[in-house]
């Protein structure tokens, strides 16, 4: 599939948003304030929105939003976050390349597809 410069720029921005979300999550883990949780999800939603449907950037954003929503569901007791987590992880499984298979093993005991 041919990509334009614009597509490549969007993919790089999506990857940067994924990294931003991971950094915000680390901040939450270190200081325990809940403010970064919403920023984490927003950054990943933006990354998913601008990434190509079959890209590595999209797969990474989908996997991480699934993980972070699962954690947020546990912390807040939110069934809605848990359902969204499962939906995002299902989407990720469809677009993730084969070498991401090890990631799925990590979720096997925690979330049933």
The ordered H/E elements are HHHHH
Tally of alpha and pi helices:
5
Q: Span from first to last CA?
A: 30 Å
- Rg result: 14 Å
How many E-type strands? 0
Shape designation:
globular
Percent range for helical residues? over 70%
Class per helix and strand makeup: mainly alpha
- Uncertain ranges: 1-5
Brief sketch in words of this structure:
By secondary structure, the chain is mainly α. Helix content is 78%, strand content 0%.
What report would you give on this structure?
The protein has 5 helices and no strands. It has helices spanning 5-31, 35-50, 56-76, 79-95, 101-107. Helix 1 runs parallel beside helix 3 (56-76), helix 2 (35-50) packs antiparallel against helix 3 (56-76) and helix 3 (56-76) runs antiparallel to helix 4 (79-95). The protein is globular and about 35 Å long. Residues 1-5 have low confidence and may be disordered.
């Amino acid at each position: 599939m041919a990509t334009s410069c614009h597509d490549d720029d969007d993919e790089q921005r999506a990857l940067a948003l994924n990294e931003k979300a991971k950094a915000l999550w680390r901040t939450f883990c270190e200081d325990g304030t809940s403010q970064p949780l919403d920023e984490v999800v927003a950054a990943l939603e933006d990354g998913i929105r601008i990434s190509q449907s079959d890209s590595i950037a999209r797969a990474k954003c989908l996997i991480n939003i699934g993980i972070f929503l699962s954690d947020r569901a546990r912390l807040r007791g939110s069934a809605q976050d848990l359902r969204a987590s499962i939906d995002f992880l299902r989407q990720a499984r469809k677009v993730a390349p084969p070498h991401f298979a090890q990631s799925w093993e990590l979720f096997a005991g925690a979330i049933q597809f």
